[in-house]
């Protein structure tokens, strides 16, 4: 038997109020568990997406590093380093936030550069290839960032929703139910006493007559 | 917002050729932590691309940092480096996923 609410007067008014509260709590519970299920659904979708992106990213990165090594062999690592130092960096990202079922999640807009930023004269086609590959890797990384950010936020939110659903289901609603039972019993008891009293009075009156 | 790379030299060169906004090449754990600390303080860092090996070395610190984070940003993405992905590396999001859905769905192939 769950604990009942404290400080309740066993009156009919109170009973009605608590019944209303129970209905409210049950509605809330239904809504929340629906939200939780929807979030979990979304979560699974994103987990799948992440797996794909991750695999792709890993292969592209591998290729990128191979190209980089080739470029290093041809133009020399010092030369490549100075190229990297002089590289034009992309515009700052527009990072907004998307909304999944009321959960704020990151949304990354990629603005990867497309054109060359160095002269043709003293570089090799290998450098171009490396740059190309790394741009691809960067693009995928940003996608991965968005997805992993989403995943983290969703996971947190699911946990929160779970905790709330459980609190309602196992603590709050049983408590209300116990209180309702308690009040009902008290009222019945009072009724019985009343009934008995009336009977008694009646018989006393009859005796006197 | 900026995209920042924290990684070994090759990762840094590659990604700065690709055009990321800033690169850091910390030499040891202490420097890595310092860099991360600094990046978390800045408000305009959106994405941190980090070498797996560096992240692995400061795993405890990183997890704690992520757990206390209120904002959506910065997002840290861990990338394999030149040597390829670390074998049998534990997925950094595994704990989170497990907590959310109750089962471990990262390791088994679904």
How would you sum up this structure in a few lines?
By secondary structure, chain A is mainly alpha-helical.
Strands, helices and their partners?
The complex is a heterodimer of chains A (209) and B (110).
Chain A: H1 12-75, H2 77-86, E1 94-100, E2 103-109, H3 125-208
Antiparallel strand pairs in A: 1-2
Chain B: E1 2-6, H1 9-18, E2 22-24, H2 29-41, E3 45-51, H3 52-57, H4 59-67, E4 75-79, H5 94-101
Parallel strand pairs in B: 1-2, 1-3, 3-4
Strand order of the largest sheet of chain A: 1-2
Strand content of chain B: 15-25%
Assign the structural class of chain A, choosing from mainly alpha, mainly beta, alpha/beta, alpha+beta, or little secondary structure: mainly alpha
What is the CATH architecture annotation of chain B?
A: 3-Layer(aba) Sandwich
Low-confidence stretches of chain B: none
CATH class of chain A: Mainly Alpha
The pair of chains with the biggest contact is: A-B, 55 and 39 residues
Q: What would the CATH topology of chain A be? A: Helix Hairpins
Low-confidence spans of chain A: none
- Can you name the CATH architecture of chain A? Orthogonal Bundle
Helix and strand content put the structural class of chain B at alpha/beta
Given the C-alpha coordinates, what overall shape of chain B results?
globular
The percentage helix of chain A is: over 70%
The CATH superfamily label of chain B reads ATPase, V1 complex, subunit F
β-strand number of chain B: 4
Q: What is the radius of gyration of chain A computed over CA atoms, rounded to a whole number of angstroms?
A: 35 Å
């Amino acid at each position: 038997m769950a604990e009942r609410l404290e400080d309740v007067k066993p009156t009919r008014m109170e009973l009605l109020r608590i019944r209303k509260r129970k209905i409210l709590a049950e509605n809330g519970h239904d809504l929340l568990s629906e939200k939780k299920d929807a979030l979990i659904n979304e979560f699974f979708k994103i987990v799948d997406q992440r797996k794909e992106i991750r695999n792709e990213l890993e292969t592209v990165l591998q290729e990128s590093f191979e190209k980089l090594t080739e470029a290093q062999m041809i133009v020399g690592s010092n030369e490549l380093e100075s190229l990297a130092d002089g590289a034009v960096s992309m515009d700052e990202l527009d990072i907004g936030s998307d909304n999944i079922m009321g959960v704020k999640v990151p949304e990354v807009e990629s603005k990867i550069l497309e054109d060359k930023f160095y002269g043709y004269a003293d570089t090799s086609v290998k450098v171009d290839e490396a740059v190309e590959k790394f741009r691809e890797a960067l693009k995928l990384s940003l996608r991965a960032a968005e997805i992993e950010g989403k995943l983290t936020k969703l996971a947190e939110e699911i946990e929160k929703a779970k905790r709330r659903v459980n609190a309602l289901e196992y603590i709050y609603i049983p408590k209300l139910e116990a209180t309702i039972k308690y009040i009902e019993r008290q009222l019945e008891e009072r009724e019985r006493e009343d009934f008995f009293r009336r009977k008694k009075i009646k018989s006393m009156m009859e005796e006197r007559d | 917002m900026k995209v920042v790379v924290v990684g070994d030299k090759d990762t840094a060169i590659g990604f700065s050729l690709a055009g990321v906004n800033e690169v850091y090449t910390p030499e040891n754990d202490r420097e890595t932590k310092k860099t991360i600390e600094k990046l978390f303080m800045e408000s305009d860092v959106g994405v941190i691309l980090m070498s797996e090996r560096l992240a692995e070395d400061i795993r405890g610190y990183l997890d704690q940092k992520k757990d206390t984070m209120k904002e959506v940003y910065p997002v840290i993405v861990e990338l394999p480096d030149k040597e390829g992905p670390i074998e049998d590396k534990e997925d950094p999001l595994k704990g989170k996923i497990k907590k959310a859905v109750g089962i471990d769905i990262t390791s088994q192939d679904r």
